[in-house]
Design goal:
33 strands, eleven-stranded mixed beta sheet, five-stranded mixed β-barrel, about 425 residues
């Protein structure tokens, strides 16, 4: 795979790329050419590879962690035993820091389509917003963080410290939100929310407006940010309205403005990769054969649509499989999540049982509390067989408060 292209930077002239971009972005092409996506770093800030991280990747996957026993994203089980893992700021972290519902990028080896598995080489964890909550609306199922609207869905997972889910979040609390940036509707669709009361810096990703090159300020959905304290070399070239950026902020406002301590382009997409899988939201739409997902242009002229194309609209959540050529996704299959996965999302966890509580009928697995008091399809054992240290596989949806998994199947063979 060639080096990732920072899509927040101007795109070099390339006839085939421009042709596809114009089709994919329609009237929004000029704005999205500047910035198309959400979540990367400059090459200089990328973490050093370790273990499998030094190998050349042939696949790229961007999506939400839906299970463990390795890492499951987009229905593919990635062996992460030798992968280098880092935050979007290039800080190396342990594999154990990865949690259900987090959004990540994976560079890996070839995907075995029959076994739906691959070797992960590099994993990068992406945050959409980290900051104080200014409003909570349990009726609309939203909260506001750093001025950004965060939508909570039936698939949003809350950390166990937020028992009660959305109702447990108070105005003024600091939270970290993982999710999918829905620029078409000006919101973040949350996939995981955690309390972060000890945060030393805030983070925000979004499309900028009201750029003032003299005052050195811009806004993201109305939130005013000052970047005047940054050296010119740390400001993305050609900063302009419509550009997607990722910004790190001081935790205290100055004169009603948030102060940037770091500012980068929003996303580095691979320029070319043999296998790609992208889970996200349609952020620009021209037709069923030409649209963008998370800002990445998609050419779906020869793709299959197992769920049809009726629900393929601006803001729809989709999963796209294909290749990437000259920074454009050449789709072979486009699935519409609302049709492919009706009802609550099913999660899949494998690991060793801990904190078994036979009275409450719960145990801990990969940082998640599992409740087995409902209707469970038991395989190779039953509730009496459970024990701390026993390796199991659990599948099921989230509970109503989205802080625990309600098991519908437990396989004691692991």
């Amino acid at each position: 795979m060639t080096a990732p292209r920072d899509s927040s930077l101007p795109v070099p002239a390339a006839v085939s790329r421009r042709t596809l971009l114009a089709a994919a972005l329609g009237s929004s092409a000029s704005a999205l050419l500047v910035a198309c996506g959400g979540g990367g770093d400059d090459p200089a800030s990328a973490p050093p590879a370790s273990g499998g991280g030094t190998a050349t990747a042939s696949s790229y996957t961007d999506g939400v962690i839906s299970g463990f026993g390795s890492v499951i994203v987009g229905g593919v089980r990635f062996d992460d035993s030798a992968a280098s893992v880092s935050t979007e700021d290039g800080v190396a972290i342990a594999t154990s820091a990865l949690k259900l519902g987090m959004t990540i990028e994976i560079e890996g080896g070839r995907i075995d389509s029959a076994a739906a598995s691959a070797l992960a080489l590099r994993i990068r964890l992406n945050t959409e917003v980290l900051g104080p909550v200014s409003a909570v609306d349990t009726t609309a199922s939203t909260l506001t963080v750093l001025g950004q609207t965060v939508l909570v869905t039936t698939s949003t997972l809350f950390d166990t410290t937020l028992a009660g889910g959305l109702a447990a979040i108070a105005v003024g609390a600091v939270v970290e939100v993982y999710g999918i940036l829905d620029t078409a509707n000006g919101r973040i669709v949350a996939t995981r929310i955690e309390a972060e009361d000890s945060a030393t810096a805030y983070k925000l990703r979004g499309r900028i407006a009201d750029v003032d090159l003299t005052a050195k300020t811009f806004t993201i959905n109305g939130t005013v940010i000052s970047y005047g304290g940054l050296p010119a070399a740390q400001v993305p070239p050609g900063l302009a309205n419509g550009q997607l950026v990722r910004v790190r902020l001081q935790t205290t406002q100055v004169g009603g403005q948030w102060v940037a301590t770091a500012l980068r382009g929003g996303r580095r997409w691979p320029d070319a990769v043999l296998e790609a899988k992208l889970e996200g939201i349609v952020t620009a739409f021209s037709s069923a054969s030409s649209f963008s997902v998370n800002g990445l242009p998609v050419n779906a002229a020869t793709a299959s649509f197992p769920d049809g194309t009726t629900g393929l609209v601006l803001g729809a959540r989709v999963e796209v499989t294909g290749t990437i050529t000259e920074g454009v996704m050449q789709a072979s299959k486009v699935e519409i999540e609302e049709r492919r996965v009706p009802g609550p999302r099913q999660f899949d966890l494998r690991g060793e049982i801990g904190n078994l509580n036979t009275t409450d009928k719960t145990f801990a697995l990969r940082g998640i509390t599992v409740w087995y008091g409902g209707s469970v399809d038991w395989r190779d054992g039953n509730a009496a067989t459970l024990a701390n240290g026993l390796r199991v596989r659990v599948r099921g949806p989230l509970a109503a408060d989205r802080t625990r998994l309600e098991a519908t199947r437990i396989d004691l063979r692991g």
